[in-house]
Amino acid sequence: MSICQPTESVEITSIEMIPTSKIGIIGAADGNCYLFNEELGRICATLKSDNEDTSVESVGMNKLHSNFAFSGSLDGIIRMYDMDNGQIVHEFIHSEDHFSVTKISPLQGQYVLATFGMDSRIKLWDLRTKNCIKEMGGHQDGIICAEVNWDKKLIVTGSEDNTMGLFAL
């Protein structure tokens, strides 16, 4: 076993790996993301947030057509990072009321991102235009977990309203 620690006192809140890549991403309670090399077992870059007072709750990467990393935070903002230079290139506002983003899911090889939040909403974003291209709802309370099957064009969600939702893309 190898232990990889971003800093000595930061709580790790989310992790994402892509099977075709040796790089993974860690989301942390300090608002930052950390890229790690799974072969070396160490942090290789820090993606600094512009708001270190909000915890990252979900992370994702898109490595096929782009070199982007994403973080979804308690403040309702999804930050899109350029993994080559570590800079934030865009911020998507999932919730104007600052409801937490609980899950993000990039479509690998495409320019689409799905986001889920405690506002009970699902949003699909076009990463080229930076616009929300579809918004879905149906839960009476926040979405706390979600999975996207891009091949089947299906989203499955779990909510604090004690229901599971099935949504067609």
Compact summary:
With 169 residues, the protein is mainly beta. It has one domain (12-139): Methylamine Dehydrogenase, Chain H, CATH 2.130.10.10.
CATH superfamily: YVTN repeat-like/Quinoprotein amine dehydrogenase
- The structural class is mainly beta
Q: If you average the pLDDT, what whole number results?
A: 90
Q: What is the level-2 CATH architecture name?
A: 7 Propeller
- Pick out the low-confidence regions: none
Order of helices and strands: EEEEEEEEEEEEEEE
- Please tell me the total number of domains: 1
CATH fold-level label:
Methylamine Dehydrogenase, Chain H
What is the CATH class? Answer: Mainly Beta
The major sheet is characterized as: 4 strands, antiparallel
General form: globular
Q: State the share of residues found in helices, binned by percent.
A: under 10%
How far from one another are the termini? 39 Å
Fraction in beta strands: over 45%
Number of helices: 0
Walkthrough of the structure:
The strands form four sheets. The protein has a four-stranded antiparallel sheet with strand order 1-2-3-4, with no helix packed on it. A four-stranded antiparallel sheet has the order 5-6-7-8, with no helix packed on it. The protein has a four-stranded antiparallel sheet with strand order 9-10-11-12, with no helix packed on it. Helices cover 0% and strands 53% of the residues. It has a single domain, classed as YVTN repeat-like/Quinoprotein amine dehydrogenase (Methylamine Dehydrogenase, Chain H). The model has no long low-confidence stretch (mean pLDDT 90). The protein contains no helices and 15 strands. The radius of gyration is 15 Å and the shape is globular. The protein is mostly beta strands.
